[in-house]
Amino acid sequence: MAPTGFLDPVFVSYYEQNENGRTTDIPFYLGKAQEANGPVLEAGCGSGRILLPLLQSGLDAEGFDYSQIMLEELSRNLSARSLNARAWAARLEDVILDQGKYSLIISGFNTFVHLLDQDSQLGALRRLHDALRIGGTIILDIINPANFDVFSRQALKRTFEATIYDMASEAEIAIWRWFERDLITQRGVYHREYVTSGRSGTATKATEVEFRWTYPEEMKLLLQLAGFSNAKVFGDFNDAPLDEESEMQVWVAQKT
């Protein structure tokens, strides 16, 4: 099932404002792409936060994403920088890829968590494995469940998150958030509510994004079952060991 929030212009607008400035992972992915010595694929490229720096460095890179809204923004970003790249609409669950084409496949910033069961996860990993050259590498980063606020009871309550301003309409948008969760299936729903106050009155818009968290030993097994070898996990983009305080799991594995 798709992360429906990414199909909603309101959600995407807020996501872009708050996440598009994220840069801590870009030097890491750029360095790995430069080492790959071959075509790079970004699975879940969005509006190009990672893909654009790869292209600006002269790398052979392309990507796909489920959100047509974000791909349209990517197209504008490419045009503004006089860049060209193949980018297409597809879901990680059923994307069709050329076999043995890529030296590196990356899937950053929790793209993988939107696969909602192990069959979908394993199917996606097998397709990505088949799309890699022998000796190629897959890298993905996902939330570390040991440090995830979905387990807090407070996270289940409607809580104020932020206020943003729409300069064009001179409107103030108050954003509220809360989670639903199923601890047995390791699945949740991230709800956001946007309350807009402006000259035309008050309006409320709600979005949701489904996700599934994956534990480290589970992720290791999924990679092995998909055919990957030499799987390693780190707790950040500087090769720190994964521990309970790590915010993310950064996985690196090879096709041998």
Commentary on this structure:
With 256 residues, the protein is α/β, with parallel strands linked by helices. The protein folds into two domains: 4-145 and 214-254, Vaccinia Virus protein VP39 (Rossmann fold, 3-Layer(aba) Sandwich), CATH 3.40.50.150; 149-211, N-terminal domain of TfIIb. Helix content is 25%, strand content 34%. The chain contains six helices and eleven strands. The strands form two sheets. The chain has a seven-stranded mixed sheet, sandwiched between helices. A four-stranded antiparallel sheet has the order 6-7-8-9, covered by helices on one side. Strand 7 and strand 8 form a beta hairpin. The longest helix has 14 residues, at 118-131.
Could you outline the blueprint of secondary structure elements for this entry?
Layout: H1 9-19, H2 26-36, E1 40-43, H3 51-56, E2 61-65, H4 68-80, E3 87-89, E4 102-107, H5 118-131, E5 132-143, E6 159-166, E7 171-182, E8 187-198, E9 201-212, H6 216-225, E10 229-234, E11 248-254
Parallel strand pairs: 1-2, 1-4, 2-3, 4-5
Antiparallel strand pairs: 5-11, 6-7, 7-8, 8-9, 10-11
**Helical coverage, percent range:** 25-40%
Number of domains: 2
Which class of the largest domain in CATH terms?
A: Alpha Beta
Biggest sheet details: 7 strands, mixed
Sheet-strand content, in percent, reads 25-35%
Order of helices and strands: HHEHEHEEHEEEEEHEE
What tags apply to this protein structure?
alpha/beta, 25% helix, 6 helices, four-stranded antiparallel beta sheet, N-terminal domain of TfIIb, Rossmann fold, seven-stranded mixed beta sheet, 256 residues, 2 domains
